Amino acid sequence: MLSSKRLTTLQPLQSSIRGKLVVENLNVYFGRLHALKNISIVIPDRQVTAIIGPSGCGKTTFLRSLNRMIELIEGARVTGKVFLDGFNIYSSGVDVSDVRRRVGMVFQKPNPLPMSIYDNIAFGPRIHGIRYRKVLDKLVEEFLKAAELWDEVKDRLKDPATSLSGGQQQRLCIARALAVNPEVLLMDEPTASLDPISSMKVESLIRELKRKYTIIVVTHNLQQAMRIADYVAFLFMGELIEHGSADEFFSSPRKPKTIEYLRGAFS
Amino acid sequence: MASISSIFVVSTIAALLLYNFMKFCEQGFLPSILSDVWLPSKGEYGLLPFIAGTLWITAVAMTISLPLGFLTAIFMAEYIPRRLYSPIKSLIELLAGIPSVVYGMWGLIVLVPLVRDHLAPLIGSSLGKILPLFRVNVNTGFSILAAGIVLSIMVLPIMISVSEEVMRAVPMEYREAALALGATRWQTIKTVVLRLASPGIFAGIILSFCRAFGETMAVLMIAGNVVTIPSSLFDPAYPLTALIANHLPEMISIPSYAYALLTAGFVLFIITFSFNVIARLVIRRLKRVG
Amino acid sequence: MRRAMLEEMLIRLLMALATVVVLGFLLVILVDIARRGVSALSLSMLLELPRNAGREGGLLNAIVGSLYISSLATLFSASVGIPAGLYIAEFEGKSRIARAAGFAAEVLSGVPSIIFGVYGFIIFVIMLNMGVSLLAGALTLACLELPIIIKVTEETVKLVPSRVKEAALSLGATRWEVLSKVTVRQAAPGIATAVLLAFARGAGEAAPLMFTSGYSNFVPSSLLSPAANLPLAVYYLIMMPFPEAHIRAFAAAFILTVMVLSINWGSRMLFKRWSRYVVK
Questions:
Q1: Which residues of chain A neighbour C167 with C-beta distances below 8 Å?
Q2: How is chain C split into domains, by residue range?
Q3: How far does A246 lie from chain C, in Å, by closest CA?
Q4: How many domains does chain B have?
Q5: Would you list which residues of chain C are within 8 Å, Cβ to Cβ, of chain A?
Q6: Can you give the pLDDT of all 290 residues of chain B as single tens digits?
Q7: Does C33 touch chain B (CB under 8 A)?
Q8: B6–C87: do the CB atoms touch at under 8 Å?
Q9: Is residue C19 a contact partner of residue B84, using CB atoms and an 8 Å limit?
């Protein structure tokens, strides 16, 4: 359906490292502020990776470096490499919009586009070349079902997206992100602005989605991380302190800062 | 594509400015424009009577609209019951939408006779005996007073909406601080709100001034268009805008006349331009900080 | 009583008085216009051309002329002004041209209307040889309307929340796609309102048209023929010494005022309706 033709100009990487996203020596600077310090990590394919840490530790900055949305900030500078399936998304000549299509994002506060529910989902496919009404209809239905929103909105697809509740809007944003056929889904505190019931719905949705997509979730809610994560990375003050499979991480953390954090010493 | 149209904008204004300026320089009558003798047939192009006329009328308009507008703005921003805000604000905006010719027409039909038949005799015979400001020298009703009143009504909506918006923008916290110390509403406003809002209010005053200064149709119909330097509220005047409006077509035949009129236009332009820019800069800076 | 309390009461009284006076002005003027206008209005007034130096006949020439001139002017100013406003809003930080254009628009918005008339007279009527015509008048009016459209477009676009733009970018849209498909949709109601308001403003202006569109007792037959318009009709008719002409002036003023005020009011209503899809 949607192809990745646009990435063919990149240099391939000969690597024995297996993983959907391989981050190598990632550093992010905002002017003189060194926000992310030398992060290297391998994100496993088709699993939920949770990025945890106290407020301001760089979780969102890290996430936004993975789809090059960090560049939208004035004065942001990125060094290092991020390999998506072996291709460095930061090499020169890369089509940024294609990167963003392949690495989708769901934001903390739902951000519907100023259009109808239908058009919100169809927006992505449309800008990537799909025009036929029937194809779009099917796509809209498919992804609204994937986000478990179809039954609630199927009779009012033409209504403004802003007429949905917060939880519904967030699921709409998830459906919209899925509709461009990404390989990775970045979620920045997806349930932070939702009520508990909607949060539960989104969490179960995440568990379903990981069968097809690689998911990276930033969360400040440790219980949530314990519920949904397969793999965990702990960031503190811009540094990657520890990472590992969720079982190991929560049952036997190794670094002292991790232990402190898990005990709830800081926010 | 879009940049072309922007350049278009820039060039329009540049052309406007430059052209007037060129003519101004060319004309060579520079020394005499501040004289008070306007006799085109003799080549005398003193603009003083017109400048004086515009200033007098604008002054009257500002004197009336300032207190009225200011008080109304405070009411709208601080005291008004919530239900009334929307309708009254819409009404005031309605006032802003009325075309200036209609104001002029109304002034002609209602205010001019009012001044002539009631205000002038009344005030002329009382205050007029003491203060030259109120003396009635010529009583046609076409006067600075009439023009000033109409202009003040036209200018009120700007005065009110700018002041009111700036006052509303003052954060609640400051007000609460004063009120919690036992200040009355008015004391709070006096010491807190007005102090913070004063640059914006000042900008509103300047914008109103510009509007009054540059108004054409209404004053054209009411001010009397007599070439003198006014000395009383009841005297007629000849504002710069009316001068241009009345004589523009004639300028194509007489070049020096053209220069004079264009100079008048240039004066208008420069004054409104500078004041306008100052006012908008102030407002912009306020919006950024607040 | 404390002095402060007295002050408070005094201020409240003054404020109430001021507001009453202001609203009073409004009511007096509107009622007067309405009264005289309604009594002067008749079907023949709307549908006939004037005869006998304005003492007989109707206002058809002015009504049609106004519609033509304002529509044309708004068409011109919107087609130049909307792209300009979009450009300035998007590139203000990065392009000197954008900043200069924005500044030029600011300057233009403060220019007195008669100066536009002078400018239009010199440039369109004389230099470009259009003569006193519908076209010259429309172009002059377009210059007057231009800053309104640019400024409102610019402000509306700047108000588009960044999260809306981020959403589109995260789906893989290019900057141009974000601008043309998302920002414009979000800003559209505001821009459309700006166009309506510019139209109403232009329709009410007389000074710019005095020497550029001329006046005529006939409906304009071509772009280069002189055209009457309602504001100038009011002016010329009321300045005549004939009471019959005055009646027609009242009718013209009434029609003009109703037209302008209803567009102003209506655009606000329409704005609410158009904002259905807009993200707040």
A1: 107, 111-113, 173, 176
A2: 62-277
A3: 28
A4: 1
A5: 161, 163-164, 166-174, 177, 181-182, 185-186, 276-280
A6: 556 666 666 667 666 666 666 665 555 555 555 666 666 666 666 778 888 889 999 999 999 999 999 999 989 888 888 888 888 888 888 888 899 999 999 999 999 998 888 888 888 777 777 777 777 777 888 889 999 999 999 999 989 998 998 888 888 888 888 888 877 888 888 887 888 888 888 888 998 998 899 899 999 999 888 888 888 888 898 998 998 888 888 777 776 677 777 777 877 888 888 888 888 788 777 766 64
A7: yes
A8: yes
A9: no
Quote the tokens at residue B1: 């594509």
Confidence (pTM): 0.82
Q: Dig out the tokens for B5 from the structure.
A: 């149209």
CB contact B283 to C (< 8 Å): no
A6, A72, A97, A109: which to substitute to probe chain C, counting the most C Cβ within 10 Å?
Answer: A97
| CA pair distance A199, A196, nearest whole angstrom | 5
CATH of residue A226: 3.40.50.300
**Could you list the residue range(s) of the whole structural domain that residue A188 is in?**
16-262
CATH class of C62-277: mainly alpha
Q: Does the beta carbon of B66 lie under 8 angstroms from any beta carbon of chain C?
A: no
Dihedral of the CA atoms A104, A107, A113, A118 (nearest 10)? 60
Nearest to A109 by CA among A197, A191, A178, A209: A191
Angle CA(B146)–CA(B148)–CA(B149) in degrees, nearest 5?
Answer: 65
ipTM for this prediction: 0.89
**For chain B, how many helices (H) and strands (E)?**
14, 2
Distance from CA of B255 to the nearest CA of C (A): 13
